[in-house]
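Quick one before lunch.
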Amino acid sequence: MATILFNDVVFGPIKSRRLGISLGINLLPDYSKLCNFNCIYCECGWNRKGEKKEFNSREDVKVTLEAKLKEMAVNNELPDTITFSGNGEPTMHPDFAEIIDDTIALRDKYAPSANVSVLSNATMSGREKVFNALLKVDRAILKLDSGFDETVQLIDKPQGSYSVATVVKRMKKFNGKMTLQTMFLKGELDGKRVDNTEKIEVDRWLEVAREINPREIMIYTIDRETPAPNLQKVSIEELEKIANRARELGYTVQVSG
Ligand code: SF4
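Model of the iron/sulfur cluster complex:
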C-alpha cells in the first residue's frame, strides 16, 4: 500500500479536511513510524518491529517552526492551524510538554490567529505533563474509535495495556476542553467482521461520548489506501446519520467523508 511518511520536522501547509490550512509538525522519526497503536487504517502503514525511538529534538522543532512561520508571515500565507500529527503518536515525545510551550510562544509571535492542535490517541494523557500540555492547546483532538474494548483491540491494536474505561476516565478530566475524534469503517480483518457503524456500536459510542462530554466531535472515514486490505469507507449519508444522533444530544459534530 502507499504509505504517507513525513521526512520533515515541519511539513505543509496542507489543506486538511478537518483543520483548514494546516502546518504540520512531526515529532516522530523521519521516514519511519512510531506509535503505541497499530491502527488497521493508519495512513503511515503498519508499525515495524525494532523501530527506533528517535524523536526530532525540541531545538530542531523550535528553529524549523520559527523559520517556516517567518517565511509564511512574509508571504502573507499564515496557517489556520499548527497541527501536531506526523509519523505516529506525538505525545510519546519525551519533551512534548516543552515543545507545546515553545509552539504556543511562536504562534503568539508570528501567527496569533492560528490554532494549535494535537492529534493524539489519548494513551499518554494519564501522564500529568502530557495532560497539562494538551489542556494548553486550542484543540486537543483525542481518538476513541469504539466504546467496546474488543473493537478497539480489533481496529486500533494498542501495543500495550489499554481499556476504554481508563481512557474515558482520563478524557472526562478535560472537562469538555477536548475534541472527540472517531474513525468509522467497515470490512473484514483476519476473517472477522469489523464494523463500528452497527447499531450496538453507535449506541455505546454515544453513551461514552455523553460521559466524556467533549466540546466538539469529529467523525471521519477512510480517505486513502489502508494497511489492512478489505476495509471500506462509510458513506457520507451513514456518517451524517451517526452525526445527527450526536447532534440531537446537543453536540457540534464535524463530518469528513
Ligand atoms: S494512532 Fe494514529 S499514528 Fe498511531 S497507528 Fe493509529 S492512526 Fe496511525
